[in-house]
Amino acid sequence: MITFENVSKVYEDGTRAVDSINFTINKGEFFVLIGPSGCGKTTTLKMMNRLIPLSDGTIFVNGRKISDFNIHELRWDIGYVLQQIALFPHMTIEENIAIVPELKKWKKDNIYRRVTELLEMVGLDPDTYRNRKPSELSGGEQQRVGVIRALAADPEIILMDEPFSALDPLSREKLQDDIIHLQKSIKKTIIFVTHDMKEAMKLADRICLMNDGKIVQLATPEELISHPSNDFVRDFVSGASWMNSDFSLEDLMEPAHHNNLSSSPSLTAHASLEEVLTLLSEHEQIRVEKNGQAIGYINRQMLIHYLSESVPVGGNNHV
Ligand SMILES: Nc1ncnc2c1ncn2[C@@H]1O[C@H](COP(=O)(O)OP(=O)(O)O)[C@@H](O)[C@H]1O
Ligand SMILES: [Mg+2]
């Protein structure tokens, strides 16, 4: 669907923001670009729809070089959601959503129907919201409109640059759930930038971890945990913001007392997340012990599930 071949970007001041990267994003994939601030995520994303020209290499979309596309065709056929809510303040919600369909000269009643459908899709009552101005919506609602605006003309590819980072934790979780749901039902290819590993774990089919303009590892969430390619990956995974100081293995293990756990290595319930990650990178399963007794077990699946569960800031994750 999208292929990068030896792509580099050097800005005019000499900054090498992206350094000869290669990867392929599959059709229908939820692809997450992650890495520390300044590692080249936004530059990588913006090169895909030619918001930033490449310095070197080639990007293909559906087997065609992006330089061969008509620029409008490329832009309109790739949805784009910005970090900052970028709705036009003087336009209604309906007009904001309808921008690309209008540019594509859709019929009025098709646009009307599409806006209705999209608002319903993210739980905003069309009759209530259609004619409001952005200032009459909460931050979370505005960002939801930002997301559906990118979907309006039914693009195959959607680029999202830290779309939820300005939101409070609850709106953020709600939108993450929405976008997972959306992607399952509409089967779009989504390229999603974040610096939040918890968010990446929750959303991604594959995670592309960047540092210094290069790809450090491109893998599924499970592989990233079980087979980190180096210490940078290990640290990035274990040092992420979801690291919880009162982490206890009892929160995520499956209680069990039976003996067939005896072949697995063990940790106490107070082990750190880092110890768990290290051990699970070598073993399928860990026995959890308390006072020398097996009280349960955890495996990689359970750890990933736990890491991607939303833990409200300052709250706990007991259900
Ligand atoms: N227009 C620009 N001119 C010069 N350097 C830039 C420009 N935009 C970004 N950079 C630099 O390129 C590097 C990558 O930036 P960016 O892609 O925005 O990273 P990220 O999105 O991962 O935070 C950073 O060092 C940044 O300072
Ligand atoms: Mg960025």
UniProtKB/TrEMBL annotation:
Signal peptide: none annotated. Gene3D superfamilies: P-loop containing nucleotide triphosphate hydrolases. GO terms for molecular function: ATP binding. Residues 2-237 form the ABC transporter domain. It holds the Pfam family ABC_tran. It catalyses: a quaternary ammonium(out) + ATP + H2O = a quaternary ammonium(in) + ADP + phosphate + H(+). Its EC number is 7.6.2.9. The keyword Kinase does not apply. Keywords: ATP-binding, CBS domain, Cell inner membrane, Cell membrane, Membrane, Nucleotide-binding, Repeat, Transport. NCBIfam families: proV (TIGR01186). Belongs to the ABC transporter superfamily. This is Quaternary amine transport ATP-binding protein. It comes from Oceanobacillus caeni.
